Amino acid sequence: MPYPTDRERDRPWVMRTYAGHSSAAASNDLYRRNLAKGQTGLSVAFDLPTQTGYDADHKLSRGEVGKVGVPVAHIGDMRRLFDGIPLAEANTSMTINAPAMWLLALYVTVAQEQAEAEGHDPTEVLAELTGTTQNDVIKEYLSRGTYIFPPGPSLRLTTDVIAWTVNNVPKWNPINICSYHLQEAGATPTQEVAYALSTAIAVLDAVRDSGQVGQEDMAKVVGRISFFVNAGVRFVEEMCKMRAFAALWDELTRERYGVTDAKARRLRYGVQVNSLGLTEAQPENNVQRIVLEMLAVSLSRGARARAIQLPAWNEALGLPRPWDQQWALRMQQVLAFETDLLEYEDIFDGSHVIESKVEEIVAGAREEIARVQDMGGAVAAVESGYLKSQLVSSLVEYRRKIESGERVLVGVNRFETTEPSPLQAEGAKAVETADPVAEKQAIAALERWRETRDDEAVRVALETLKEQAGTTANLFQASLACARAGVTTGEWAGALREVFGEYRAPTGVSAASSPGEGAEEIAGVAASVRATSEELGERLRILVGKPGLDGHSNGAEQVAVRARDTGFEVVYQGIRLTPEQIVAAAVQEGVHVVGLSVLSGSHLEVVPEVVDGLRAAGAGDIPVVVGGIIPADDAALLRERGIARVFTPKDYSLTEIMAEIVTVIRHARGLPDE
């Protein structure tokens, strides 16, 4: 967005809605409707198989196709996704990380095809494309979990995308360095700034050292680096965070990379407010939470977001409907067009309160950035487990404050009395339900695609990709060739898996510190764990599992830490496990209970498979509990399938959950209630 002078009214930010589900056709229809309502940018949500480099027919994709986003398996899907939407005129944000190069190659190819069909020069169209690929894989190892390859090759792919776009698609943002999920994983404002800027240093150093961009062009690189941040409800603190972010980014790019152009050094960021901070209890309260969080990134003109997307009020209940997303869009439009917010210079300049808080965050972030750099940088701090353990410990402290009531959540741990909500009067119809046949349709369409393409062209394209992956060549051109040949997402990622290998990130659980308060309640549950262990003649063991492709591991990690603190022996092997792997581990480790965490909406598919697998393995006496964003009707179905307990976001007390799990074990083993 152009930046006006202080004598002009500031222009509104790009307004987006994070959207996509079921299929490319269904998502295309949703995008067209949203654009017609005044949305000024697209924000594409891809499903988990696409984000993790699998096709719809892979065993890990079961139950995940089209659930949290749109499946895009090949160039045909990308054509359908943007059918009737001129990409030369669009501003498209794509939340895609490990396969960012691949999805951008598909997008660029469709843009070129559209240009050719209109009789335009494809090269000129590429020069006008605007948008963003998230493409921050480092934070995936810390929070969201959609990584594929080890950190080194992942950073190489990011570097190649940046170098290629700077030279070929100069208005594109090739990376969103994403602190959003760091906050969801527990980061304090200081940690969020410090770890995001540590990632920026790793990325910019890699680009500079790759030899693909000369020093004279580093200003172009810096000028296209964007950030994607989170905004919590403590909006004064969050606004100060963004002012600190802007000051440190300006300082870093000037001093470390020699960028003299002040415009290139501006912090350019988009935002989504805190989705995981929305509550299942009294969800109507989420409306005011979302509005207050939006103020954090819009009130301060000098640190104002240039793109905003808001969640819907009911995202803690399930997938929002188009009407719910429209409501979120209207919140932005009222603020931008009805208020006088955009008519003034920065209203916080000169405030000693704001300046003091900003300096506090700046000082703390500088200190933490220096600590990470002393370790060898962000990649080394990921591989050592330092960053992950810091985030897990911070989230432990955050949850302690909620459980103790020190941090108030209205309608959750205080003011819980409520009238029935008319917004939920429709029950299950109050949320969108992904088409249950979308997965079968995607698999059938994938089979048809493979039957109609040129297999030899596919083979040659994939062989070229693998050969170049073994060198230092930029892989974007090879990826473009794969896109044109009809290669699938799973095939592109599979070829690179053969060369780069895969990776399992540290969980951060073993090094996480325990809360200092709440010890009395924890001690009470620990006594029950000890007593039950003595009655059974062995220490209680819990397996915490993440089935399917859902990489949001924050909840699972917190459960594992609290289980450890109450005396359980914990088996936690991280994310992205098949039901078969979970069953095998449960039997091998001789656990007394299996706890599954599922946030992607695939609970009805993957959770019963674990129960059935335990029965088939002769371990049907091991109870299974599950936690996640699970609608009430689905929870009832899971209990019918043999799930002992279903926990949802309203069950915020981890210590009480541990006590309930002890009860489940005692009932399963025929022991009387304590």
TrEMBL record:
CDD domains: MM_CoA_mut_B12_BD. It holds the Pfam family MM_CoA_mutase. PROSITE patterns: B12_BINDING. Residues 539-668 form the B12-binding domain. Keywords: Cobalamin, Cobalt, Isomerase, Metal-binding. This is Protein meaA. Belongs to the methylmalonyl-CoA mutase family. It comes from the Bacteria. Its cofactor is adenosylcob(III)alamin. Heterodimer of an alpha and a beta chain. The keyword Isomerase applies. SUPFAM superfamilies: Cobalamin (vitamin B12)-binding domain, Cobalamin (vitamin B12)-dependent enzymes. The keyword rRNA-binding does not apply. InterPro entries: Acid_CoA_mut_C, Cbl-dep_enz_cat, Cobalamin-bd, Cobalamin-bd_sf, MeMalonylCoA_mutase_a/b_cat, MMCoA_mutase_a_cat.
